[in-house]
Design a protein that fits this description.
The chain has 190 residues and is mainly beta. The chain has three helices and eleven strands. A hairpin with a 2-residue loop joins strand 7 and strand 8. It is 11% helix and 33% strand. The radius of gyration is 16 Å and the shape is globular.
Length: 190
């Protein structure tokens, strides 16, 4: 990265789960799988988070780690008039505070935390699934569109720590807009 912008953020949660919890029919309920909200996670370039369900999976190499802004979750809850959500329910790997993520799609950026640096490439948006209406609240699936976070490719080995961090971006961001949905395409879904 030649030009860079630095933003103080906070890594609130680091979710690691060896299996999928949301598959099949939502009416059947989520699978009971072990899930860890870790203090630190090890990342491997081209593979993802060690111990996670997407680690080393060919179909997910360019989208092995998901990031989401807690502000988006809080805004969704406020809009729906419900209690704020457990940030682990959407099952995103990294929940950040103070990070506008949508502009990072297609960009190489870094997260510095606990004296370590991890380099990522923002891939596609992390679209919500219909499970969100079941496990969070009715209406979340629709409200989360455009602000479900981003899926990223891991470009460097490293460690990500919970707590204060710095997001190093090649593009300017507006952290105060972390809750605002990115432009969404029309959908046929309800």
């Amino acid at each position: 990265m030649t030009t860079s912008f630095r933003y103080e953020v906070e890594v609130l949660h680091l979710l690691v789960s060896p299996a999928h919890a949301y598959f099949g029919r939502a009416r059947d309920g989520a699978a009971d799988v072990p899930t860890t909200d870790a203090d630190r996670v090890d990342l491997v370039a081209g593979k993802g988070i060690v111990g996670d369900r997407f680690f080393g999976k060919a179909a997910h190499m360019d989208a092995a780690v998901t990031l989401m802004a807690v502000e988006a979750l809080d805004a969704i809850a406020d809009e729906l008039g419900v209690e704020h959500f457990d940030p682990l329910l959407p099952r995103r790997n990294v929940i950040l505070r103070g990070a506008q993520l949508a502009p990072l799609v297609g960009e190489e950026f870094a997260l510095e935390s606990g004296g370590d640096t991890v380099t990522l490439r923002g891939g596609r948006p992390a679209h919500p699934c219909v499970w969100m209406d079941r496990v969070m609240a009715p209406g979340v699936h629709s409200a989360m569109r455009g602000r479900g976070g981003i899926r990223c490719q891991v470009l460097s080995d490293g460690v990500l720590h919970r707590g204060p961090a710095v997001l190093v971006s090649p593009v300017p961001l507006e952290p105060g807009q972390a809750h605002v949905p990115a432009l969404r395409r029309a959908t046929r879904l309800p």
